[in-house]
Structure formats: C-alpha cells, structure tokens
Amino acid sequence: RKATSVPFMTRKFFSRKSVSYTHLYTAVAHHVRGLVAYIARDHAAAEAIWRAALDATQTDWCRATLLDDLGNVYMRLDQPERALAVFQEERAIAARIGDRISRFYALTNLGIVLGRLGDPAPARAYAAEAVALARQMDSARLIAYALRNQARLALAGGDAPTAYRLLREATALAWEIRNRDLTLSALEQLALAAERLRPDARAVMLFAAVAAARESVSYTHLDVYKRQAQSDHFADGACWVDLAPLIAADAVIPAAVAA
C-alpha cells in the first residue's frame, strides 16, 4: 500500500497558498523520484531519496508527507520499528499543523504497524480514530479504506462478527464510488469474515462476488460501458471491452453485500 499518489500530492501542495512555488516543485519532485523507485520495488533507493529530502526540508507539511513515504518504505523493508517511529512523528506534525489527510494516514499506518508487532489494543484504537477522522472528512474512499483496515484487525483478533459488520459497510462504500481495487480488497476480506462466522450459502455468494469482481476490467467506467453497449453505435453488439464480467459484477456484488 502506498498511501500517497502524485495527483493527491499535487492537490495537497497547491492547497498550501503560503508555500513558495520553489518549495512546492522541489517537494513534488522528491516525492515523484522516490515514488518511481518505490513502484519499481527499489525500496533502498526510495528510502535514500526520501531520507535526503527529509533531512533537507524544514517545512512541516512537506516533512509529514516524506515521513509517510519513509514509513511505507520501512514496512516494505520489514523494519516495523522504524516505520512506527516515523508514523508517530508524522502524526504529531499533522496534528500540530491541522493536516487531516496526513493525520489520517499516520493513524491508519500506526494501526497496521502495531498490529504486525503484536500490540492489538493500541492498534485497534488508532484504527478506530482513523475511521472517526475519515467520517469527519466525509470521504467515502477514506471511510471504506479505514473500515477495511479496522476490520482486518478485528478478524486477526478472532472477532469475525465485528469484522463482517465493518466490511459490509466498507464494501458498499467502495462499490458506490466504483473504486475497483478497494472494492475487491474489502470484498475478499468480507468473504473470509463470512466464512469464519458460518460457512453457509452467504459465504459462497460472497466468494462468487469476489470471482466476478476479479473478472471485471474496471468499475469506474461501468456505467459508460453500459451506455455504449446500448447506443445505436453499438447496436450490433460490438464493443471495445467485454461487458459480460462488468455487468455480472454489477449484479452480484450489491446482492452479496446486502445478504
């Protein structure tokens, strides 16, 4: 998981009206250079780029972002203690400057790290705080993301009923905004939670929904594809994408989540 992205970072930087364009472009450049290495799985290079950038900046909002970058690298490098330290620093900075996005990701990541370190009580507390903050920001994507992570901790702790309840909401929200990756991730966890609760027809339906989701190409353009297929231009049934998996997912997933 890489919490930040180039579009997100650009929006975040340009929202800082008091920051000079020189600082802005420098920060974006460091983030992008490190992100290229991160995506290429050259985590050592990404760490070096972001660590050098962090050492060179005194701007709080930039430090919070780079700390998030570094924390994700340390998680990939299997260094959870170092990740924990930088996420805690990110959280402190974000709280001080009122950066709710950075605070959200810091809380989420702290829950993930502490869960891996076998410290479930504070992990669950951070995860619950992340959900509450996402609801304050009224972002369906962040709420679904936080609920999924909270549910994973519940499932790891043997609380399948709570995990199932959280994941139903997460999956429904992710599906509503047509976020394919988040829908699939939450749906897979929902199927596992259902199986833990009771391996019955409901669990089978959810695993079938997972299969349908994996077959679909994109949820984001689902409605567009449907309109294309129904238009005069595609009257002969030809379309540049196979609609069958998309329509199947559109039919199966809402029914499975509602079950």
Attribute tags:
13 helices, elongated, mainly alpha, 259 residues
Number of helices: 13
Low-confidence stretches: 1-11, 217-247
- Compute the separation of the termini in Å: 29 Å
How many beta-strand runs?
0
Report on the structure:
The chain is mainly α. Helix content is 79%, strand content 0%. It is built from 13 helices and no strands. Helix 8 runs parallel beside helix 10 and helix 9 crosses helix 13. The N terminus is likely disordered.
Secondary structure elements and their pairing?
Layout: H1 6-14, H2 21-39, H3 43-56, H4 60-76, H5 80-97, H6 100-116, H7 120-137, H8 140-156, H9 160-176, H10 180-197, H11 201-215, H12 222-230, H13 243-258
Question: Short description, anyone?
Answer:
This protein is mainly alpha-helical and 259 residues long. The protein is 79% helix and 0% strand.
